[in-house]
Amino acid sequence: MTNASTTLDLGSCDREPIRTPGSIQPHGFLLALDAGGTVVQASENVESYLGKPPEAVLGCTLADAVGADAAVQLLPELGRGQVRERPGFVATIRLATGGTGGFDVLAHYYDELTMLEFEAVTRSGAADFRHVFPLVGDFLQQLDDNDTVEDMSRTAAREIRAVTGFGRVLVYKFDNDDHGHVLAESNDGSLPSYLGQRFPATDIPKQARELYASNRIRLISDANYRPARLVPADNPVTNAPNDLSFAALRSVSPVHLQYMRNMGTLASMSVSLMVKGRLWGLISCHNAAPCHVPFDKRTACEQLGQILALRITSREDADELQFRLEVRRTMVSVLAGLTQGADFVENMGSVFPQLLHFARAGGAAVVVDDRVVTFGDTPDEPQIRALIGWLDQHTHGDLYHTDRLAEQFPAARAFQDRASGLLAMPISRIHKHYLLWFRAEFVHTVDWAGNPHDKETVPGAPQQLSPRTSFASWRETIHGRSAPWHPGEIEMALEFRTALLGIALERAEQMAELAEELGRANKELEAFSYSVSHDLRAPLRHIVGFSDLLLEAAGSDTPEKRGRFLKNIKESARLAGKLVDDLLSFSQMGRASLRPVRVNMNDLVRSCVDKLMLDTQGRNVQWHVGSLPEIVADPTFIQLALYNLLSNAVKFTGQKDPAIIRVDGRTSAAETVFEISDNGVGFNMDYVHKLFGVFQRLHRMEDFQGTGIGLANVRRIVERHGGRVEAQSGPRGGATFTFTIPNTLPSV
Amino acid sequence: MLKPILLVEDNPHDLELTLIALEKSQLANEVIVVRDGAEALDYLYARGDYAARQRGNPAVVLLDLKLPKVDGLEVLREIRTTPDLRAMPVVMLTSSREEQDLIRSYELNVNAYVVKPVDFKEFVRAISDLGIFWAVLNEPPPGSHRYVRPQN
């Protein structure tokens, strides 16, 4: 069907030298001039136009060859730099040798020769390019922004048929496998319709496709022509066969001519449609009888082809953009849904409808930790497990996709109705966790122009190359295929995967944090129950013991002894009560949520000092409080922490006169550091690791009262703010407690 | 010569009650009181404040489990890993009924584990029983000073 297709057969088509046929079509003649303007090569048919054999023309000037009048018209246009690689129209001339018609003269420069092509035309006047612009203008006017590629192609076919007078004009597109698919047709009925049909990729050999890409228009006026050879056969400058890639008269392969005759088209013309530098498709014109299209009209068609290609480019770009926007919109909503709850698989389940929409799939499945959750049309669970096993073994990389799964994984034949297409996304680098999308089988029929599977059996003809003989429509039903995965979907899926792994990673971190938190809570709970059994039992035992002693002695004891026993009872009761209180506040500290605000630490310290001064009456305590920076924290908690640290300092400076307690603070980029130091007894650094533990004391009970929970509280408060606390004691006593509060609080 | 009892106790109330109980049991042994684990070890190694003490191990160590600085279990471990002290009877005297404390104490070869009773009469009896058993009835490991019953 294609006018330029050389043909099928045995792979030799790919090696046919179509750029250097050594001959031209005889509806014109060719003269090649060297740099000095001397004719160095001519087509053998010059005799029928110029009345002298090619040998007689060689060595002549142009004027000698075609006559002075014609040369006067041509020569000024052939100056240095004016002739390019692609043929340009020079003039329409008449020859001194007579004849009724004129010649459109085209010139191009290639392989160091100026190639002049003289195309015979029936009109006598000059080529008229005025109708190029109305054609392009009309075409543009007929296009609408909303037109599909098919609509635009149909309009282009109609316009081109009107300009050229060909009987049938097709617009067809190459698919991803290079098969041609006829999108639009304009037909006067003289030739069969090919609308909707497909032509196998092998109909057009590789080098023909390359030629289509470099030379955008090609005409064969009469498939029954006898080629006119070049004399001499080789380019005299390069001593190699002439590359006629850009010659309008270039001869085509005899195989192709046979192909045309087989198709019943004696004239053909093709216009290449280049989209983004790639041969997207062709406008292909055919006529049952020979038909010449002069250069001016060909130029108009070429222009129209370029306009169409541009429109297709922008249309496809817009469609692509629209498509990707849509996919991205869906992806964003899926991701938003995924972060809602705690359980990843359940979240996945809640966004299944969007997941399907996202990939235009019929079914989806999540496989995580041996859990298989499916939605829509999917293979059953054992089948999915088998598929995962296969994927794990046979696929690598971030994504696997196919639109013909059963060809890769034969077991998939069992469910190819539901899942011929598969997009599989591993969502863990370690585990067999996958997100799967399934596309149902897309049973469709393909109308081939001739059975593409038969072409290898055609040979037998005497020639090496044998053109296709049958163009009868052949219908094929395709099974086991799904709609193909769009590159935009693949890209978006990869992006989706990255986002997903991000979520998973964040989740893992959260889990680790939770586990850590849980571990801590567990330890605290243990300490809690331990202290209830141990620490609380002690004061109760003391109360009972001293009460018994009092009762037992009943008057026989000295008043001093009785007084001490009573004091012990009171102390023990107070301690028991305080223990319970402290335990409660400590457990609250772990549960209550933080309410961070801007906190003026100077105020906080002042209020703690005021409170402590009530207990230190009679003592000489010197407070040195620096100018403290503000922080963002929970003021109630921070005040408690400060109070614990300051009262600690007061407690352990009990024997000092004066007691000196300093409070300082400084802010760095990341955190604010506070320091509380005293000149008290300090502690043994060997036991510093115990200092912040629950119910740990480093001093004897009677030396320093306390339940041993204050510093545990401090640590808990500071750590909940994302900070840390440290303690330091010098060899000569004194203690320094440092705690930090990050300038940006953790989001817990 | 009666061998002393080493009482390791930080809580002043517990200390007072224990001393009263020992007094009530009418044991003649000297009771040496230390107030934390570190001090107990100083005594046992005869170092620091106790460098000049009379040689020989106590008849029994009554060891509180929960002590500031070095706790009872750590003291016990130290005793059991020191050849000269290893054979010495150690009684864990504690408020804790926690199974874990019990297990860890026995793992470290404690000789007895006594939970201080809440009822004072029982407490007195327990301390008295302990004192009589470990300081009087029990035959101490060879190499120790022989127990000599005091003349009344």
Automatic annotation (TrEMBL), chain A:
SUPFAM superfamilies: ATPase domain of HSP90 chaperone/DNA topoisomerase II/histidine kinase (SSF55874), GAF domain-like (SSF55781), Homodimeric domain of signal transducing histidine kinase (SSF47384), PYP-like sensor domain (PAS domain) (SSF55785). Signal peptide: none annotated. Residues 531-745 form the Histidine kinase domain. It catalyses: ATP + protein L-histidine = ADP + protein N-phospho-L-histidine. It comes from the Bacteria. It is an enzyme of class 2 (transferase). Keywords: Chromophore, Kinase, Photoreceptor protein, Receptor, Sensory transduction, Transferase. InterPro entries: BphY/WalK/GraS-like, GAF, GAF-like_dom_sf, HATPase_C_sf, HATPase_dom, His_kinase_dom, HisK_dim/P_dom, HisK_dim/P_sf. Residues 148-306 form the Phytochrome chromophore attachment site domain. In the N-terminal section; belongs to the phytochrome family. This is histidine kinase. It comes from Pseudoduganella plicata.
UniProtKB/TrEMBL annotation, chain B:
The keyword Phosphoprotein applies. The keyword 4Fe-4S does not apply. SMART domains: REC. Residues 4-131 form the Response regulatory domain. The modification 4-aspartylphosphate is found at residue 64. Keywords: Phosphoprotein. It comes from the Bacteria. One of its GO terms (biological process) is phosphorelay signal transduction system. PROSITE patterns: RESPONSE_REGULATORY (PS50110). This is Response regulator. It comes from Pseudoduganella plicata.
